[in-house]
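Consider one such protein record:
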Amino acid sequence: MEILRTVLTVLFILDCIGLSVIVLMQEGKSQGLGSIAGMADTYWGKNKGRSMEGTLVKVTKIMGVLFFVLALVLNLNF
């Protein structure tokens, strides 16, 4: 059991580092004055799911869920 706990701890640390890097790579959500005038609805805004930013958002969600699952499992006293 101690080996499993060590492996999960290493995965948890790697997930923490990876999640921090992915979050720092993302762009800010503020659109500035362009969102007031309606210029935020451009081609890149509509196809954000297929861009690099969309991929980073998906990876962030997956790594966030993995973070919470690993934290819960490591908190169990087995």
